[in-house]
Every structure is written in structure tokens, then in C-alpha cells.
Amino acid sequence: QAAEDWYRARCARLHERAARSQEAVRASRREAGECRRQLQARLVEMESLRGAHQSLERQLQELEASLPLQDTIGQLEDDLRNTKNEMARHLREYQDLLNVKMALDIEIAAYRKLLEGEETLFNMGSSGLPSLNSLPSPTYSFQPRSFSSST
């Protein structure tokens, strides 16, 4: 009886191990199949890219043979250099104009203060004259213009 129980327990464990092994084999086969599919997809993609690369190489060779690229590159570099110089000149002109505007704004502010000071003195000095008090007092206001650049 004991030997038979041992035998059955041993067989049960072996069957259990066999079932786990079979499941592991199935999982490995599924994984191997997935790897094969991925490999096939990568091979197809690689062949496609290789064909596209060869096509682009042929187009590049055709373009190099048909265009005088060095002349075009030289001309474009000259155009770029000229454009940069022109932009630098415009920037200097803009900065000069901005400096002039700032100086004018300062001068206008100074004149405004002078006019307000004279207005105050005028109002204080004319308080004894009834005919001048009936006149409305002038006020000076300055609203600076904003200039926008379309660069």
C-alpha cells in the first residue's frame, strides 16, 4: 500500500511536471513563432528600405550629373552674404532712428514740464486779474505715437 501511494504521488508529480513542461514548450513555441513573424516583417522592411535607398542614390547621381551645383551653391552663398549685409544695414538704421526717437521723447517731456511750469506761474500771476481768470486754463498733453516695424 505504501509503495503504491508513493508510486501514485510520484506519478502525480511527474504528470504535473510534464504538464508544466508542455505549457512551457507551448509558450516557447508561441514566442519563437512571434519572433519569426517579427523577423520576417523586419526583413521585408529592410528590403523595402534598401530599394528606396537605391532609388534615392540613383536620383542623387542623376541630379549631380545634370546640375552645375558648385555654381549654384556659390551664387546662393553670395546672395546670403548680401542679404546679411543688407539686414545689418537696416538694423543700424533702425537703431539710429530709435535713438533719435528716444532723444525726441526726452526733449518733448522736458518741454512739457517747462510748459506746465509756465502755466502754473501764469495761473498764479493772473489770479489778481478777473478778466483772465474767466478764460479756461490751457492744458498740454502729449500722446506718443507708437511706430511698428514690419520686418
Automatic annotation (TrEMBL):
GO MF terms listed in the record are: structural constituent of postsynaptic intermediate filament cytoskeleton
Give start-end ranges for the coiled-coil region(s): 46-100
Q: Choose one Gene Ontology CC annotation of this protein and give it.
A: intermediate filament
GO biological process terms held by the UniProt record:
intermediate filament organization
The segment(s) forming the IF rod domain are 1-122
Show the SUPFAM superfamilies listed in the entry.
Intermediate filament protein, coiled coil region
Question: What keywords appear on the UniProt entry?
Answer: Coiled coil, Intermediate filament
- What InterPro entries is this protein classified in? IF_conserved, IF_rod_dom, Intermediate_filament
Q: Which family does it belong to?
A: Belongs to the intermediate filament family.
Descriptive protein name: AINX protein
Organism of this sequence: Dasyornis broadbenti (rufous bristle-bird)
